[in-house]
Amino acid sequence: MSEECCDFIDNREELRRRHGEVLVAKITKHFLDRFLTRKARDYRKLDLMTIRSTILNILRDGKYYATTTSIIVFHPTYTIVACFDREHLVLKTVMRTKELNEKLRKLIDKGRKVLWRDVIILMPQRILQK
Q1: Cβ contact 77:40 at 8 Å
Q2: pLDDT in tens, the chain (130 residues)
Q3: In the CATH hierarchy, which fold is given to the domain comprising 11-122?
Q4: DSSP run (H or E) holding 30
Q5: 80, 59 in Cβ contact below 8 A?
Q6: What is the pTM of this model?
Q7: Per-domain boundaries in the chain
Q8: Taking Cα atoms as reference points, which of 130, 112, 114 lies closest to residue 25?
Q9: Residue 39 gets which letter from DSSP?
Q10: Are 68 and 10 contacting, i.e. CB atoms less than 8 angstroms apart?
């Protein structure tokens, strides 16, 4: 028999398996760009710590809806689209929840609360060096 190798990760199974563990979230540069263009309000001081604490609140308090290819985290202010890549949850993009289309709005009720033991957020290296 030949051994099969596959890098495909089923996000639904991965979310079930990691429930109650430490969540390590990795922020992409694209995510930061989208956050800055789609911010829900005018922040008095918008720096990396403000963005990081906002993301922490969304991941800690949001409702999770998982498909095989992505994970959607719904929060009253923002909605995050992400996927698992080995040990990290890679945050791809962010949207304002008020501006979601009807197809995504229907999924909010199907989302479930996930309790994490701890949430660790990794920032992109290029942003940190500036």
Answers
A1: yes
A2: 444 445 678 899 999 998 889 999 999 989 988 998 888 777 777 788 888 999 999 999 999 999 999 999 999 999 999 999 988 999 999 999 999 999 999 999 999 999 999 999 998 776 544 4
A3: YaeB-like fold (3.30.2310)
A4: helix 29-37
A5: yes
A6: 0.85
A7: 11-122
A8: 114
A9: -
A10: yes
